[in-house]
Write a structure and sequence with these properties.
By secondary structure, the protein is mainly α. It is built from 13 helices and no strands.
Length: about 230
């Protein structure tokens, strides 16, 4: 009894079997037969490693995206400037150059450098530690009166907050679109499709709405509706 059969028997499951060989159509058959596995263990081992390779490839692709590099550079800039004024980035800093080149005229390079040096004083003023994450640092900056003196730093924090690390959110909207406009809804107009997609994409916000209040506002909008519908309580 093989290892796979022993494991299957321990969980009261059927032993794994090799899938049936699918015969290739004559149009695609070039005379060479595909690889055949001798036992289920070797077949599923191959499937497992294919899955692992796919996961690793997608993770590496995600990490190497330009958006992720920019966000990582901004995080290192904030953490260096937050730790102490002496460790604040300089004109030659690789992360600083990448960020100012990426955002171009949105940032004043010289003003940003001088204002970053003041972050360590804000840390002392707020009595916070060095181990804060960038969102926590931005929250501390936003709560202090000194933020008006460092507009370029605040602008960099805003750009960090709104810059997407990937296109996953946009692609997710297309997935919603396919579910909203199914084959049974092909006659749906563009206006209704837009409204339906908004309701589907922002489901959490929609679930938190007071439906009774919305219905009553709809009824009270004109005299005809007030005569036709009853107010919900």
């Amino acid at each position: 009894m093989g290892t796979d059969e022993i494991l299957a028997a321990s969980v009261d499951a059927d032993a794994p079997k090799l899938p049936k060989n699918r015969k290739m159509s004559r149009r695609l058959d070039q005379g060479s037969s595909g690889h055949s596995f001798d036992d289920p263990e070797s077949y599923y081992r191959s499937v497992f490693f294919q899955g692992i390779d796919s996961v690793i490839g997608h993770i590496e692709k995600r990490i190497k995206e330009e958006g992720v590099k920019i966000l990582s550079s901004i995080e290192r800039i904030f953490k260096m400037a937050w730790s102490s004024a002496s460790e604040s980035p300089t004109h030659e800093n690789e992360d600083f150059l990448r960020v100012v080149d990426h955002f171009g005229e949105d940032l004043d390079k010289n003003c940003l450098l001088s204002q970053l040096k003041s972050l360590s004083y804000i840390k002392e003023e707020s009595s916070t530690s060095d181990g804060l994450s960038v969102p926590q640092i931005l929250k501390v900056i936003g709560s202090t009166y000194l933020k008006k003196m460092i507009p370029e730093v605040c602008r960099l924090g805003t750009l960090y907050s709104v810059s997407p690390a990937s296109t996953a959110t946009c692609e997710r909207s297309f997935s919603h679109l396919r579910r909203v406009k199914s084959y049974l809804r092909t006659s749906m107009g563009q206006k209704r499709l837009n409204h339906s997609c908004i309701l589907t994409v922002y489901k959490e916000q929609v679930d938190s709405l007071n439906l009774t209040e919305i219905v009553n506002n709809f009824i009270l909008a004109n005299e005809q509706r007030r005569k036709t519908f009853a107010i919900c309580k």
